[in-house]
Amino acid sequence: MVSQGKGGGGSRNLTVKLRTAKGRKVGSTRWLQRQLNDPYVEEAKRRGYRSRAAFKLTEIDDRYRFLKPGMIVLDLGAAPGGWSQIAAELVGSAEGRGQVLAVDLSPIEPLPGVEVLTQDVSAEDAPAAIRAALKGGRADVVLSDMAAPATGHRSTDHLRVVALVEAALDLAEDVLKPGGTFLAKVFQGGAGGELVARLKRSFAKVHHVKPKASRKESPEVYVLATGFRGGA
Ligand code: SAM
């Protein structure tokens, strides 16, 4: 995992400070400064991962071990592809074992062991298109790191988050095999009472996870639901 330790003298430990250049907003300067000083960004680049988000999935899987060789994984909101890269490594899809199907509104550049479907998950034709692309029409694991761009309007953003999680869960309930796993980004407040109650009805266990690689100031949290009760 990525070390965040101080001292030691590697370039990783140097803090880059930026002045607000003319024409650059304070917010974007802060974003750039955070990127430049983020050990996960540097490590993702070094290992050839498409996103720092790759470390969140690695961390959650290190703890709960739900991604196994030969599994079929559906990755919703997969662009640019960090989670799919991790899933492909763990199931062995580049060596012909299992399958990783990456779905996103945005196109994803080809990745070894990853099949791509450019698709809006909330669209009416999504379930049929996804089932058709999955081997045997079923999955062992459904991942969703989906997030819609924030509008800044709190209740609109909240409704969008809930709608995306519900769309992911609808798909998971449609394609998961018995005993399957569902992991989704929910944001604080996103996994409200109703969603948790639904997850508890459909799965044997429900955990809330905040991986270290998730920025402390970010409201994102993940729900991990294991032991799907349906799908027979
Ligand atoms: N897990 C990814 C990785 O490791 O590279 C990062 C995912 S990014 C935080 C969220 C993604 O959700 C975006 O690429 C966005 O296009 C996608 N998304 C949002 N709404 C979607 C929808 N309705 N259907 C499909 N993808 C969606």
Q: What's this entry about, in short?
A:
The protein is α/β, with parallel strands linked by helices. Helix content is 35%, strand content 19%. It has two domains: 17-48, no CATH class; 51-228, Rossmann fold.
pLDDT below 50 for ≥5 consecutive residues: which ranges?
1-14
Main beta-sheet annotation: 7 strands, mixed
pLDDT averaged over residues: 87
- Main β-sheet, spatial strand arrangement: 3-2-1-4-5-7-6
Q: Tell me the Rg in angstroms.
A: 18 Å
What is the H-and-E element order? HHHEHEEHEHEHEE
Give the key terms.
Rossmann fold, 232 residues, alpha/beta, 19% strand, disordered N terminus, 2 domains, globular, 7 helices, binds S-adenosylmethionine, seven-stranded mixed β-sheet, 7 strands
What report would you give on this structure?
The chain is built from seven helices and seven strands, in the order H-H-H-E-H-E-E-H-E-H-E-H-E-E. It is α/β, with parallel strands linked by helices and 232 residues long. It folds into two domains: 17-48, no CATH class; 51-228, Vaccinia Virus protein VP39 (Rossmann fold, 3-Layer(aba) Sandwich), CATH 3.40.50. Helix 6 links the parallel strand 4 (139-144) and strand 5. It starts with 25 loop residues before the first helix and ends with a strand. Residues 1-14 have low confidence and may be disordered. The chain binds S-adenosylmethionine.
